[in-house]
Amino acid sequence: MDTRMTDSRAIEAFEELEVPEGFKAELLWGEIVMMAGPDLVHNRIVTKVMDQLSPDKWERVQNQDVAILAETSEPVPDLVVMALEDAPESGRLMPSEQVRLAVEVVSKTSVHRDHVTKRALYAAGRIPAYLIIDPLRGECVLLTEPTGKGEQADYRVERKAWFGDTMPVDPLGVKLDTSGFQTLPVSPPEQ
Predict the structure, then answer these.
(1) 161 burial class (0-12, 13-18, 19+ CB within 10 angstroms)?
(2) Which of 6, 22, 149, 175 sees the fewest Cβ atoms within 10 Å?
(3) Is the CA virtual torsion 72, 76, 82, 84 positive or negative?
(4) Percentages helix, strand, coil for the chain, rounded to the nearest 5?
(5) What's the CATH number where 166 sits?
(6) How would you list the strands of the sheet with 58-62, edge to edge?
């Protein structure tokens, strides 16, 4: 049974949601998902990516709400990259059509969401490139050429690089140096 709310009810509930300080919320396929703030390693990786993208060419925004309203979704990527000429003056919601690259840094609680849920969601929103940076695995995955619709949408091209390797981000004409990316320690299972 599908327990998701109707499109309008989900969007209305999400827009009225009061998120506690230190948390962020996203609307993904009609479901509201709340998560705690990120680890310091996570924030350092996002900063290292931003520093490699020229501010003279790219608008680089952290934690920007993206509108994929046809999919009842308002994800909040860790980093959104747009061409300067596409960046609006203001607004809470960035139309997915204006996003050139969405970046997610995986945390212990977001593995499935970043690798599976958002992969389909960003492809459905026609975001041309999606970069998953996984400090648990020490790996980057660049997905390009979105195809399909809805939850069956995906990317045709997948390129991987280990931390320490250079990751070509061809849609932006950038070669990303990943040598400064830290990994997260794997926690022992709880007793």
Answers:
(1) middle
(2) 22
(3) positive
(4) 25, 35, 35
(5) 3.90.1570.10
(6) 58-62, 79-83, 101-105, 129-134, 139-147, 154-162
- Reduce the DSSP state of residue 115 to 3 states and report it: helix
Q: Using an 8 Å Cβ cutoff, are 182 and 44 in contact?
A: yes
Classify residue 138 by its DSSP letter. Answer: T
Specify if 83 maps to a domain.
yes
> pLDDT band for position 15 (50/70/90)?
confident
Amino acid at 172: L
Task: Please count the other Cβ atoms lying within 10 Å of the Cβ belonging to residue 32.
Answer: 16
Q: Which string of DSSP letters, residue by residue, matches 144-177?
A: EEEESSGGG-EEEEEEEEEBTBEEEEGGGTEEEE
DSSP 113: I
**pLDDT tens track for 94-127:** 899 999 999 999 998 889 999 999 999 999 999 9
Nearest in space to 79 (alpha carbons), one of 14, 176, 12: 176
Q: Give me the domain span that covers residue 66.
A: 38-177
Measured distance CA(124)–CA(138) in Å, rounded? 27
Evaluate whether residue 27 is within a structural domain. Answer: no
